[in-house]
Write a sequence for this structure.
């Protein structure tokens, strides 16, 4: 462990703002890239299912 | 190309634009001579870029709309040569006049006289590259209705290196530094685009026409 | 004559069809997602807690563990996108087109992260958020190129035509990649030269570059898993009239 206490971990010798800002932004971008396609997948499946139901009812 | 001579406005518009935008800077920012002379290389180059962009939209549009583009592509002529010819025509009607008009604007913006030959040379070498790259973007978007803004979006990233080297060369010349290296790189970019761009233009035209 | 044709393993041909690709990625996806999660969490914890500080930069050095992998990926994804587009246009492979389409947003986010974390790292290290040196400028150009590709896709209605146009743009923009890579060698720039090269040992001590390696692997696995999810969505969208899609959707 490079840090003696939790406080020093957050402060990073004064560089805390920079380090944590970058890590948080990266985490947000990665999380968005994880969540958004999966949400799109769910919406897509629902819309495709509705389409099939419509086609079957038209027959 | 004859057509563009007949429609004088097409020829004049980019040049007028070039002049007017260059004039905007002393009016909008500051008319101080020493300030302007520092800005001048960049401003002149950016204006040349924008003026070149203006006329890209119509490069293939007229031919696309009346069907001649399809005919050209179907004919036995090599599409590479057609693409090259179109880009050269664009340059002759936009880049070349611009490069010749530039000394006048350089004086307006207090560019040191020692830099003016470099300005003209860099524009002469750089604007054909702009025409070639711009023709790729124009060919990609000719089928779209509102292609104009998209062309700028596509082409500006590719224009940036030309801008950087062109403006740096003029800037260097205004300070008396040697500029051969910059001009050599501009020349290399021109050579590369002369050889490769027509392939891309031709491919893009085929894609657009087939849609 | 049959012997000469079977040069590639079976899964190679399977991947070329949308249906085969969907089935194969179905099996691969959980592995890549899991690996990504593991590598990224291990790497981040290691980099934040256990790796030593830099002698000159102090703790802001830890940004390297998220900056370098994202910059690497920004470039690799562009190359993937351009090559996939090229394959799609030359061999008329739908799946290659769809791979290129799926790559673009991921690549753009990676470039964005690289630029942003780089700027944040630059402030304590160089004193300014941004400097117009060759590498940063060409990374910005890369971001603009990604935007251009994405704009092309959204401006055309038919995905097949859009894919070809975007492929051409992608290939033209490939010239930017060597500029990014070699800009730190060609010009005296503020940005550091490469940490990892294929031929030499890194200049950093092991305790510093090992977590970096883990993070790079994690980012690549993340890319693979994101790509697959987006690819699968695109396959379903474009093949929605196919019977296998209808059967699949009905089962869900």
């Amino acid at each position: 462990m490079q840090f003696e206490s939790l406080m020093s971990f957050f402060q990073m010798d004064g560089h805390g703002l920079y380090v944590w800002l970058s890590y948080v932004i990266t985490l947000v971008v990665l999380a968005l890239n994880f969540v958004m396609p999966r949400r799109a997948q769910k919406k897509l499946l629902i819309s495709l299912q509705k389409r099939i139901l419509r086609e079957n009812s038209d027959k | 190309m004859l057509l563009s001579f007949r429609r004088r406005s097409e020829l004049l518009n980019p040049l007028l634009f070039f002049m007017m935008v260059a004039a905007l800077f002393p009016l909008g920012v500051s008319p101080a001579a020493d300030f302007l002379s520092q800005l001048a290389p960049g401003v002149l180059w950016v204006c040349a870029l924008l003026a070149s962009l203006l006329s890209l939209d119509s490069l293939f549009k007229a031919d696309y709309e009346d069907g001649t583009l399809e005919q050209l592509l179907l004919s036995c002529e090599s599409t590479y040569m057609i693409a090259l010819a179109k880009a050269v025509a664009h340059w002759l009607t936009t880049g070349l006049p611009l490069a010749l008009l530039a000394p006048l604007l350089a004086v307006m913006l207090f560019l040191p006289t020692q830099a003016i030959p470099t300005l003209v040379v860099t524009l002469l070498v750089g604007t054909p590259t702009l025409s070639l790259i711009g023709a790729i973007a124009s060919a990609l978007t000719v089928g779209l209705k509102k292609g104009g803004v998209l062309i700028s979006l596509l082409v500006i990233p590719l224009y940036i290196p030309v801008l950087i080297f062109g403006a740096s060369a003029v800037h260097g010349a205004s300070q008396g530094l040697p500029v051969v290296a910059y001009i050599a790189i501009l020349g290399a970019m021109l050579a590369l685009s002369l050889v490769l761009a027509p392939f891309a233009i031709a491919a893009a035209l085929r894609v657009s026409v087939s849609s | 004559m049959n012997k000469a044709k079977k040069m590639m393993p079976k899964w190679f041909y399977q991947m070329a069809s949308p249906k085969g690709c969907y089935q194969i990625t179905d099996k691969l996806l959980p592995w890549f997602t899991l690996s990504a999660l593991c590598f990224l969490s291990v790497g981040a914890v290691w980099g934040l807690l256990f790796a030593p500080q830099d002698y000159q930069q102090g703790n802001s050095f830890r940004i390297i563990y998220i900056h370098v992998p994202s910059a690497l990926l920004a470039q690799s994804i562009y190359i993937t996108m351009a090559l996939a587009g090229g394959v799609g246009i030359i061999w008329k492979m739908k799946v290659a087109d769809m791979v290129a389409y799926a790559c673009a947003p991921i690549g753009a986010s990676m470039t964005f992260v690289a630029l942003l974390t780089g700027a944040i790292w630059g402030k304590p290290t160089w004193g300014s958020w941004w400097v117009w040196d060759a590498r940063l400028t060409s990374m910005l150009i890369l971001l603009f190129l990604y935007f251009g590709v994405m704009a092309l896709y959204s401006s055309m209605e038919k995905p097949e035509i859009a894919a070809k146009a975007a492929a051409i743009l992608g290939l033209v923009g490939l010239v930017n990649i060597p500029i990014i890579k070699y800009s730190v060698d060609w010009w005296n720039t503020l940005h550091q030269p490469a940490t990892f090269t294929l031929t030499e040992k890194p200049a950093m001590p092991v305790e510093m570059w090992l977590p970096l390696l883990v993070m790079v692997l994690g980012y690549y696995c993340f890319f693979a898993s994101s790509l697959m999810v987006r690819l699968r969505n695109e396959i379903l969208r474009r093949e929605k009239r196919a019977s296998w899609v209808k059967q699949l959707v009905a089962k869900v």
Summary: The mean pLDDT of chain B is 86. Chains B and A do not touch (no CB pair under 8 Å).
